[in-house]
Amino acid sequence: MQHPLRTALVTGSAGFIGFHLCQRLLEEGWLVIGVDAMTDYYDVALKEARQAQLLQSNHFRAVTERIETPGLLEGLMADHRPDAVIHLAAQAGVRYSIEAPESYVESNLIGTFRLLEAARSHPPAHMLLASTSSAYGANTDMPYAETQKADTQMSFYAATKKANEAMAHSYAHLYDLPTTMFRFFTVYGPWGRPDMALFKFTRAMLEGEPIHVYNHGRMKRDFTYVDDLVTGIVRLVDAAPVRPHSEEEIAEGDSLSPVAPYRIVNIGNSEPVPLMQFIEAIEAALGQRAEKIMMDMQPGDVPATWADTRLLRRLTGETPATPVRDGVARFVAWYRDYYRV
């Protein structure tokens, strides 16, 4: 399929989601400029292996730099004039944000500021920036809808992402930059991050070690398979928001800003799965039982997430639907192959 937008700038291109997104864009005929700092927050070799796959395409260019480097994004956008900018680069992780908050300021706040400034000088047709379901914070009214007030973030990671939303809205309003913010819900799948539960549980079980189950297993997550997530992102590229002339133009349930070409969109499976059921899916895929150590809730964590995805369906025509059991089995197959276990 040939896409009407020809060049995409993707930040975080060697990351878990960025890698899968770049692969899909390349398959659909895009030229992709991928920016990734290859930081050592987790195994750099895994990032290098992802990037090596992308470099097999002569339509992919890798730029190994930090996004907060002054002038970097400005220069790339001046040189390549991307039609779409998809901003995934960030210091990730709720728990790590308690240990090393400054790295979140540098990457998530300053890095996003550099991107917004570059877009102001060289406006793309559509800016698409990653946020997180963690932005809903202490909200308990579920499923989470994009029109809900979200002012009670419970981790510094979530706070930086909510700040990104506010920063991007101001630039969309001031400089007429069509901007979509995604709130991702617990993404998992092949090539996933080693700091996430699926990876940690699988590794521990294969090594004969116990797994740590937080909140004594009383957690629910809206687990979203990475291929479904990428489909949502790619479909939304063509759904750039348009500044409304009046609030009456905004459909019920649409998070479109009344004063900017700006919208927040959930991308989730819209099916909260109990953590113990998720662990059972891993056990089934591995053919073995996990030894479980029950733990208290960790600081900054929330007991449940659940996405209202009606807006995503209205904008793209479909929503994520891969069953957790299938997605987990695909991850385990990848893990066994990649690590030869």
Summarize the structure in words.
By secondary structure, the protein is an alpha/beta fold. Helix 5 (101-121) runs parallel beside helix 6 (156-175). It is 39% helix and 15% strand. The protein has a seven-stranded parallel β-sheet with strand order 3-2-1-4-5-6-11, sandwiched between helices. The protein has a two-stranded parallel ribbon with strand order 7-10. The chain has a two-stranded parallel sheet with strand order 8-13. The model has no long low-confidence stretch (mean pLDDT 95).
Summarize model confidence as the mean pLDDT. Answer: 95
Treating each run of at least 4 consecutive H or I residues as one helix, how many helices?
11
Q: What's the CATH C level of the domain at 7-185 and 225-269 and 308-320?
A: Alpha Beta
Can you list the strand order of the major beta sheet?
3-2-1-4-5-6-11
Ends apart, CA distance between termini = 37 Å
Class per helix and strand makeup: alpha/beta
| CATH fold label of the domain at 7-185 and 225-269 and 308-320 | Rossmann fold
Strand content: 5-15%
Q: What would you report as the Rg, rounded to the nearest angstrom? A: 19 Å
Provide the CATH architecture of the domain at 7-185 and 225-269 and 308-320: 3-Layer(aba) Sandwich
What fraction, in percent, of the residue positions are helical?
Answer: 25-40%
Q: Please tally the β strands and state the result.
A: 13
